[in-house]
Amino acid sequence: MSDSDSTPYTGFVMADTPGERMTLDGCDVHVVHHDPGTEREEHTHEETHIVFVRSGRMRWSVDGEYRETGPGDTTVTPGGVTHSWEVLGDDPARVVCVTAPPEADSRPGLTDDGE
């Protein structure tokens, strides 16, 4: 974290951490809880996402390739690549997502289109 970054964050992500976003120099770290049945249709964005599955099961598509993922699995989606996901089964999915560069809406003074 830079000296100018005053974003409060937790230094540890524990099994019961429900959700949090930490914006650090060069990346965001999101701790996310997705309820059963949650899904995101195919989309793209400028940022690269690296998603670490902590619990639950998910189905991901990255550039037309589909995989089911579970605890310990990692999904990498480079910026500009079409992808989607859905939570499988009756249990929530908990993931840690590292986004680089930070998403536009998390950077002070920037809008979604990067201005």
TrEMBL record:
Family annotation (Gene3D superfamilies): Jelly Rolls
InterPro entries given in the database record: Cupin_2, GPI/OXD, RmlC-like_jellyroll, RmlC_Cupin_sf
Cupin type-2 domain location: 31-98
One annotated GO molecular function: metal ion binding
Keyword line: Metal-binding
Xref: SUPFAM superfamilies: RmlC-like cupins
PANTHER family per record: OXALATE-BINDING PROTEIN
Protein name: Cupin domain-containing protein
Record organism: Halomarina salina
Taxon lineage: Archaea, Methanobacteriati, Methanobacteriota, Stenosarchaea group, Halobacteria
